[in-house]
Structures are given as C-alpha cells and as structure tokens.
Amino acid sequence: MPDRKAVVLLSGGLDSCTAAAMARAEGYRLFALSFDYGQRHDRELQAARDVAAALRVEEHRVLRLPIGELGGSSLTDPSVDVPDAPPAAQIGMQIPSTYVPARNTIFLAFALASAEVAHADTIMIGANALDYSGYPDCRPEYLEAFERMADLATRAGVEGRGVRIWAPLLSMTKKDIVEAAVAVDAPLHLTWSCYRGGDKACGTCESCVLRRKGFAEAGREDPLAYEVG
Asked: Which of 90, 106, 186, 203 has the fewest CB atoms within 10 Å, measured from its CB?
C-alpha cells in the first residue's frame, strides 16, 4: 500500500490504545498526540508513553494545554469529587460531571494541525458512542461535522487532500473493543482508564466500570489492578 500516516489521539486508555493498534495493523505510520490539560488522572500520560513505545510510533508529543484552568469538570477541579458510576442502566442517560468542556474539539484541532505538518491523511480517535458515558463530543454527527469543518479550514482540505477523522470504535460495545484489541495485539497491559488517578485504579468510577464490563463480557482478564474487586 502507499505510504500513509495517521495522527493518533493517545490518552493511554483502553479505547485509544485499541484504535492506535488498529491503525498500525492497517499499515499506517503513527504520529501520536497526548495532552496534559490539568487532569487529575495524569497517571494516564505515562500509560500513553508506554503504549506509544510499544506500538513503535514514529513521534509522540505530549502537549500542555491549560483547558483545565477553565474548570467545569470533576476531572480538572480538585474541589469536585469524581463520582462513582450510576447503575448500569443509567450510564449515558445524562452528561456526567467528568465531561471536560470542548475537550475533543480542542484535541482534534491540535491533531488537525499536526496532520497538516506531517502530511498525514488520517486522524485516529478512540471515540465511542455506544457503550460510553454520554459525552456529546463522542457522537458520530459531531465527528462528521468536524471533518467537514476541517475541509473548509485547512490548506489540505481546500486543495482536495482533506483529512479523514477515523473513529473505528464508534459503534462498538466495550466487549467489542476488548475483542478488537486482542485481535490486533494491542498492549492492553500498559493502559490506564481510571478517572481518579492514583497508584491503583478505583474500580468504581464510570470509566473503570465500563472497562471492567467490557473485559468480563469478552471473557478476558483485565490486566489493570483495582482498589475495589
């Protein structure tokens, strides 16, 4: 296949690791971006570095962005506790306090700039709209709108070389994601998903609960250690 490059948004979690490994399996040269935005679970940044090394990305940048200083999220405001997950049937019914205002828009904007510089034709994002916490910037209509905007706002788009926003996990359940990760040999043992940070995952926040659900339904052992068994 022709030489193809993808900019990968790599948080260090299950979804972004799986998406990056899928791009690698498709033969893409990978350029990874991670962000230190004041998140309380900055433990994920070391996971992102470890995943990037394991996947042999050509370049991994960790950019500092002050969006956490704006507040509005329990992920960035130390005075607001990260809540435990609600009952399973209620997950995704409303936008949780862990939503960070405009986060994916900001991340994708930086990925778009990186893609133009690297002459990449794809931006890979591990967004998931089926088995997720209800974030508005993980929906397919949002990603489609961003791709249309990118065609209008960039030199590459105007010249007919628009960047594709590839979100292969968008309609997958967490079970599907775990199975896809195993199929492409994603280094799941290096990932971190807990919103609370710390040395050991809490096991009770929405991110932990959804991750554990996926591994259990896939019949796979979760390599992450939890405070609550």
From this structure: 90
For residue 118, what are the contacts with CB-CB under 8 A and spacing of at least 6?
Answer: 5, 7, 31, 59
pLDDT band, residue 6 (cuts 50/70/90): very high
Query: With contact defined as beta carbons under 8 Å apart, do 22 and 202 qualify?
Result: no
DSSP conformation letters of 25-40: HTTPEEEEEEEESS-T
In a 10 Å sphere around its CB, with 0-12 CB exposed, 13-18 middle and 19+ buried, how is residue 106 labelled?
A: middle
- Which fold would CATH assign to domain 5-218? Rossmann fold (3.40.50)
Nearest to 76 by CA among 112, 103, 104: 103
- 8 Å CB contact between 177 and 169: yes
For 50-98, the pLDDT digits (tens) are 999 999 999 999 999 999 999 999 999 999 999 999 887 777 778 899 9
Domain assignments of the chain as residue spans, ordered by start: 5-218
Distance between CA atoms of residues 10 and 79, nearest Å: 27
What does pTM read for this prediction?
0.94
What are the tokens at 61?
Answer: 């940048």
Nearest to 183 by CA among 2, 24, 44: 24
What are the two backbone dihedrals, phi and then psi, of residue 120, each rounded to the nearest 5 degrees?
-90, 145
